[in-house]
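Quick one, T. Sequence first:
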Amino acid sequence: MVIGVLKEWATKKVGLVPSVIKKLVKKGYIVHIETRAGRTSYFGNADFEKAGAIIKKRDEIFKTADILISYTPIKKEECDKLQKGTTYISLFKPYIYKDVPKRLKEYGIIAFSLDMIPRSSIAQSMDVLSSMSSIAGYKAVLRAADLLPRYFPMLITAAGTIKPAKVLVVGAGVAGLQAIATAKRIGAIVEAVDTRLETEDEVKSLGGKFLKVEGANQATDQGYGAAQSEEYIKKQRQMMFDHITKADVIICTATVRSTKAPVIVTTEMVENMRRGSVIIDLAAESGGNCELTENNKTVIHNYVTIVGDSNLSDAAVVDASTLFANNVYNFLEYISDENLKIQLDRDDEIIKASCIAKP
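C-alpha cells:
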C-alpha cells in the first residue's frame, strides 16, 4: 500500500512528518513524498529519506499513490491527475465548498474529510480541528499582544502603574479556551462569551469571567455551537456592547458548522472601541465574527486593527504538522485492517461522517 504526500499550496504545513513516517513504514506502508514538501515546515528531503520515505516528483505521486494525503485539497485544475480508486485524505470543508463531494465522486475517488470527524471520545486522537484550534487560540493571543500598543500585564513602576489589558474571547471551544489560558498567563484580564452554557465552568477554571446571556440554543450533539435565534443575538449584542467597547483585545473563535459564522462584533461596536485595540478573527474563512473582517487580510478601521486569519496554526508550523500527521496516522489505524486495506463501514459513526465521496 503506497501513501503519497503532496507539497502544499495554501499552507506551510506538510501532511506527514518523519516521526510518523517511521511508524507507517514499520507497519508495511510505502511512503512517497513530493520533493521539498517539507521546505516551509522545516523538514528537508534528507529527513524524510532517513525516516524511510521515497522522494518523488508531483506527477509520480498522483500516479503511484493508493492513499493520497494533503492538508489542503489540491486545486480544481489538478483533479484530472487523480487516479480512479485512490483514497484521498484531506480537509475538504464540504460545509463551505459544497460542490467538492460530487466532483470527487465523479473522478472515482474515495475521499475522507478529516474536518468532518465527529467530536466524540473515540475520535479525539483523530480530531484535526481540535489540534489546529488549540494552536490557533494560542497564537491569536500572541499576535494580538504584538499588535497592541500597550502591555498585557499590570506593571507597577517608578514612573507609574500600567493597568492590565482587557481581553474578550468570543467562543469558548478549543481555540477559545486556549486563548483564555494564554491571555491569563501573560497577565490580561479575560472575559469570555459562548452560547454553550456548559462551558462556563471551563472558562472559570482558566481564570476567565463568563458573560452569560439566557435563552441560548444549546450545542449540537457533536459539541459545536448551535445557530441562535435573532432575538437571542439581539440580546447578546446589547449585553456585549459595553464589554466589547471596553476591551483592548477581542479574540473571535465562534463558528457554526454548515452556516456562515455569526456576526457578533458590529461596525458600531468597533467604532466605539479604544484606538489601538486589536481584533483577531479566527472565524474569517466562514465570514468572521466581526462585521468588518476580511479573510486573510488585516484591516484598520477607526484605529482598530482587525486580523482575519483562519489558518493561524501555520504560525507554529512544526508542531501543527506533527499534530496533523499524528491525527492522520490514528485515522489510518482506525479505518484500515491488519492487511492495511481501507474499510468502508458505513454504519461506523466516524467513517460515515468523514467519508464524503466514494464511487
